[in-house]
Design brief:
Blueprint lengths: L8 H10 L37 E6 L2 E6 L9 H4 L4 E4 L7 E2 L5 E8 L3 E8 L13 E3 L14 E4 L6 E2 L2 E6 L3 E7 L5 H4 L9 H4 L9 E6 L7 E2 L2 E2 L16 E7 L19 E3 L16 H6 L14 H17 L1
Parallel strand pairs: 1-8, 3-4, 5-12
Antiparallel strand pairs: 1-2, 2-3, 5-6, 6-11, 7-10, 8-9, 10-11, 12-15, 13-14, 15-16
Helix pairs in contact: 1-6
Length: 332
């Protein structure tokens, strides 16, 4: 029988402190830099360019989202090496960020739940400076010192009404796969946007559709928090890794033929724009819950099939280790 360490006050206290926030911004009133040691800026304007140092990201729709990725290419531009200085790359123009070149994203799946918005998918992310072969890592608003990875990175969404800052979020990136979840402020946000499973990868943390060839948006249930199984919580590094939760059930899906912004990749041009082809639940080839056959494999291999397998351990792993040790002591 699989046994997980119980949730203990020490771990809870450490996570609670790390998950607090003291400021709320909009792009219009954000400071030049929101955290000490920040390499980029949160005052981005609206003119996108490919050398922008903007560190504001947006998750609004399947054709309107951003990803954090390295500011410059090179062998040392792995996510693990550049986590503190990532910049924002967006599908849509007008945010003062860099643009994701057309053809880079080969599949994208946006879901909106009562508690969070999420984008998952596949692509040739070497076009946004991630080195080929980089299995990637995790980015979040906390980091080892509470300043975030990247330092000062802010996330916004208008999916729940007016544009608002999303204080809890988690973004995994590799050279071929991405996932980004941003949680609406509320009591469920810290658990549903948990960030302590940094080596587990996309498919374990955010089970869903990662297949190339389709662009889709859906409504969905919130599902289960990553790592929480009934009254027990799994901590990274324990001897037995549980399977990922099933993907949340989805409905009211709309598929698209492409997403783009008129910025061609350097090796050629691709079609641009977004055009809906079919709407309604019948537009999907199956709900998100039926398209996750590789999720458990990714969990069993520690995320080696997705982003996060080579990510360096941070304070989250230290907390998990303390929790495991304390849990074992309590069991004696």
């Amino acid at each position: 029988m699989i046994s997980f360490a119980p949730i203990i006050p020490l771990a809870l206290a450490a996570v609670s402190v790390a998950q607090t926030y003291s400021a709320t911004y909009l792009p219009s009133n954000a400071p030049q830099q929101s955290e000490q040691g920040q390499s980029g800026t949160n005052q981005c304007g609206s003119s996108s360019n490919q050398t922008s140092e903007c560190q504001n990201a947006y998750i609004n729709a399947v054709d309107d989202f951003c990803l954090f990725a390295p500011p410059a290419p090179g062998a040392n531009a792995t996510i693990g090496d550049t986590e503190r200085i990532e910049v924002s790359w967006c599908i849509k123009d007008g945010y003062g960020t860099r643009l994701i070149p057309n053809g880079t994203i080969t599949g994208a799946y946006f879901i909106q739940t009562p508690d969070f918005v999420q984008i998952t998918g596949a692509g040739n992310l070497t076009n946004i400076n991630i080195p080929q072969g980089d299995e990637g890592g995790e980015l979040d608003p906390h980091g080892a010192d509470g300043n975030g990875n990247p330092i000062g990175g802010l996330v916004f969404s208008s999916a729940f009404g007016s544009l608002a800052q999303m204080h809890e979020w988690t973004n995994y990136m590799s050279d071929t796969e991405f996932c980004f979840r941003a949680c609406k402020d509320g009591p469920n946000a810290p658990a549903l946007c948990q960030h302590i499973y940094d080596v587990m990868g996309c498919m374990w943390n955010m089970p869903g559709n990662y297949n190339p060839g389709t662009f889709e948006r859906c409504l969905a249930d919130s599902g289960e928090p990553m790592g929480v199984y009934g009254t027990s919580t799994f901590f990274q590094g324990e001897p037995t890794t549980p399977s990922a939760h099933p993907a949340p059930n989805s409905s009211s899906c709309t598929t698209f033929t492409s997403i783009g912004n008129n910025l061609a990749i350097s090796t050629g041009t691709t079609t641009s724009g977004v055009s809906a082809t079919t709407t309604g639940a019948s537009a999907t080839t199956g709900t998100a819950a039926t398209r996750t056959s590789t999720s458990s494999n990714a969990a069993q291999t520690g995320g080696s099939n997705g982003a996060g397998a080579r990510f360096s351990f941070g304070w989250e792993t230290l907390i998990a280790g303390v929790a495991v040790i304390m849990g074992m002591a309590l069991a004696l």
